[in-house]
Amino acid sequence: MAKNLATLRTDIDAVDRELLQLLNRRAALANEVGEIKRAERSPVYRPEREAQVIHGLQQANPGPLKPENVATIWREIMSACRALEAPQRVAYLGPAGTFSEQAALEFFGSSIEHVPCVSFDEVFHSASSGNADFGVVPVENSTEGVVTRSLDLLLTSPLHIVGEISLMVRHHLLRSSASLEGIEAVLAHPQALAQCQGWLNKHLPDAERRAVSSNAEGARLAASHPNWAAIAGERAGSEFGLHLAAQAIQDDAFNRTRFAIVCLPQKLQAPQASGKDCVSLVVSVPNRPGAVHDLLMPLKQHGVSMTRFESRPARSGQWEYYFFIDIQGHPSQPQIAATLSDLRDLCAFYKVLGTYPVND
Ligand SMILES: O=C(O)C(=O)C[C@]1(C(=O)O)C=C[C@@H](O)C=C1
User: Fold this and answer.
1) How far, in Å, from the CA of 182 to the mean position of ligand 1?
2) 57 CA → ligand 1 middle, Å
3) What is the pLDDT at residue 1?
4) Mean pLDDT of the region 88-102
5) How far is CA 85 from the centre of its chain?
6) Structural domains in the chain?
7) Which of residues 242 and 359 earns the better pLDDT score?
């Protein structure tokens, strides 16, 4: 006979007690790991180990939990264990409610110390001065392309990329009332204004578009001005008690933003291979015919896949460019090591921005 609701709930309670015991056993082990790391003065955060843990559990998962549930749950468990070893301070473009904050929480789990910043420059400064352990910055949007300030900061900063996360970005028009009537100004980060320009042209052609430091800052300001609206995500809306005047107004329904996680190299051990890795680098070649073709030759010769190729002006006035390249693999693989060595020999400027596990 099928069990009734009360019996099933009693069974769930018993499983939860077991889980609690097991989770505390796990946390106690992480505490011991933390003691060893403190004695060795070695970094707490080990992204390749966390990727291995999640990957291994996904492989072993008999269901009915879905693989993505396994990843979400264990990211939170490891976040709590990591925080027991040492609190991890994470800088991002604030205030509370931004997509950058959401990216930080999805990447590190919720057991972090928040360091909201007013600009991408401040995020980099915070992570390089040691005020924060990590920074989270957007690097690319599927509608608007690269976030140029982030790439320019990566070029010159001492920070390394240690991970990435991609978020579905749904922008809403938020306001103190739920109507579109009488909106005089729409406030948002320039990236969000650009990602919603088609909708704004159609529905609010006469409203002023005002660029502010972040979408959440726009939401904060719109909360105290009845004739102002903000473009921001749901988190910012609930943070500042705003109404949804229009939902999902981004021009591309599949709008996504990729964020890079950055930190000082000494905050992380040389990353070991997780099985699914990426090397990000920035290079420049002399401005001569065929130079870009030559740049790509080592990749072809060694059979290495490139997943990103972006250019940024070198600001030399000579039509010279930096190329931001992502290649699939890990430097411990001979073909990747050979490709990197060829590129180093070939390029006038060569900087590895980081090697890190790729999230699906
Ligand atoms: O294996 C470690 O080094 C740990 O500190 C444990 C643990 C975990 O909870 O599994 C926590 C933090 C690290 O980032 C990796 C894994």
Assistant:
1) 53
2) 14
3) 73
4) 92
5) 23
6) 1-86 (1.20.59.10), 172-254 (3.40.190.10), 277-357 (3.30.70.260)
7) 242
